[in-house]
Design brief:
Distance between the termini: 49 Å
Helix content: 25-40%
Low-confidence stretches: none
CATH topology of the largest domain: Creatine Amidinohydrolase
Bound molecules: manganese (II) ion
Mean pLDDT: 95
Strand content: 15-25%
Length: about 400
């Protein structure tokens, strides 16, 4: 049986689980059990394992759940697995199922059949005074948010549910060396794709050909999920922030905005480049706007350092765009991790170990183009490292690449 997932050493998952219960105890002033729900078969195949379950277990099985019970002296960490229906095996393959092999593979204290989940959660919550914790996000809902809502509807009398996410983000915001290594790998894959595709835009000819070529590069090493579907917007398409269509021909001699990213070990890259399709920044207006966005991107890189607040960092970086009379349409930055928009506490100042995007942009639908330049930064002890530095972005470097 091949056990998939597990991009981290088992000790890392165990350390994270211990940290999760400590964070919850700190936030709610008492120990509470934590329940995390994984993606079902369809979601997992089309998208990916839920990042919260992934973060604490590395489990890649469909319909899994994880219960951390600080009141269970024998078995704090229980992974619940669904063996699936035998009739489905010929369709979807054999599942890992509960038992000793699963327990050992994931380094948990117990691996039980999913059927036992409800009874175990009720028991754990009762021991904790009628309360347990789950994760939910309202802004970017996913598997956890749905599961949270479902459990809330089912809750037996006297049980209460609290949102663990604001506590747990304080773990996910800081990447350890293994996580940073995966980020570097995802970025290297993305770099390879962009460096192959940018010099042959005219041959590719359409947004969909560019998106497909990038997707082939990003999935070649592991056939893993993309960080998100590529955004490939020619001319006016580049002025739509999350342009979803990728279905137009590349307008000759006009700007093309490409926002895309591979994943590695589940960790995301998130890179945007805006280039003229013919490889020359010879349109004066485009070049003027491009240089302004690049200036802001470079200010953000130079000012990113431990201790600076998001507000100060963001304000300083956007200032030239504001001063030039353009509108600011979005934030400067988001955390990146297992989620491309990784959950985080944005009241916390920048600190070592954070991986963040740096993505100023100007969008001019009336002029038929948009410019965004997006890099990924790792905050270090005395500043930041631009993880995407090998992907060209100055006018000279891009013109050289596309010649
Ligand atoms: Mn981004």
């Amino acid at each position: 049986m091949i056990v998939r997932g597990l991009s981290m050493p088992l000790a890392t998952y165990r350390r994270r689980r211990t940290g999760a219960l400590a964070q919850i105890q700190q936030r709610f002033f008492r120990p509470l059990p934590l329940l995390l729900i994984g993606s079902d078969e369809t979601t997992l195949r089309r998208d990916r394992q839920d990042p919260w379950l992934d973060y604490y277990s590395g489990c890649a099985e469909p319909d899994a759940a994880l219960l951390l019970d600080p009141f269970d002296p024998d078995a704090r960490d229980t992974l619940f697995l669904d063996p699936g229906h035998p009739d489905r095996e010929v369709w979807d393959g054999k599942r890992l199922g509960a038992g000793e092999a699963a327990r050992k593979a994931h380094g948990v204290d117990r691996a039980l059949d999913l059927k036992e989940l409800h009874a175990r959660v009720e028991r754990a919550a009762a021991r904790a005074g009628g309360c347990f914790a789950m994760c939910t996000r309202t802004k970017e809902p996913g598997v956890q948010a749905q599961a949270y809502a479902t459990w809330q509807r089912w809750l037996p009398q006297g049980l209460r549910l609290v949102n663990a996410e604001p506590a747990l983000v304080h773990q996910r915001m800081y990447k350890d060396p293994d996580e940073i290594a995966w980020h570097r790998k995802a970025i290297a894959i993305t770099e390879k794709g962009l460096k192959d595709v940018l010099p042959r835009l005219r041959d590719l000819g359409t947004e969909c050909a560019v998106a497909s070529a990038l997707t082939a590069h990003y999935r070649a090493p592991a056939y893993g999920p993309l960080a998100f579907p590529p955004i490939v917007g020619s001319a006016l398409g580049g002025a739509t922030l999350h342009y979803p269509h990728n279905d137009q021909p590349l307008a000759e001699r006009r700007p093309l905005l490409i926002d895309s990213g591979a994943t590695a070990g589940g960790y995301c890259a998130d890179v945007t480049r805006t280039v003229p399709v013919h490889g020359r920044f010879d349109d004066a207006r485009f070049r003027e706007v491009y240089e302004l966005v690049l200036k802001c991107n470079q200010i953000a890189r130079k000012t990113a350092r431990p201790g600076i607040s998001r507000e100060e960092w963001t304000k300083g970086a956007w200032q030239p765009i504001i001063d030039a009379g353009f509108v600011r349409h979005h934030g400067l930055s988001h955390h990146i991790g297992l989620d491309v928009h990784d959950p985080a506490d944005y009241d916390v100042a920048l600190a070592p170990g954070m991986v963040l995007s740096n993505e100023p942009g100007i969008y001019l639908p009336d002029e038929g183009f948009g410019v965004r330049i997006e890099d990924d930064l790792l905050i270090t002890a005395d500043g930041c490292e631009e993880l995407t530095a090998a992907i060209p972005k100055t006018v000279a470097a891009l013109e050289a690449l596309m010649k």
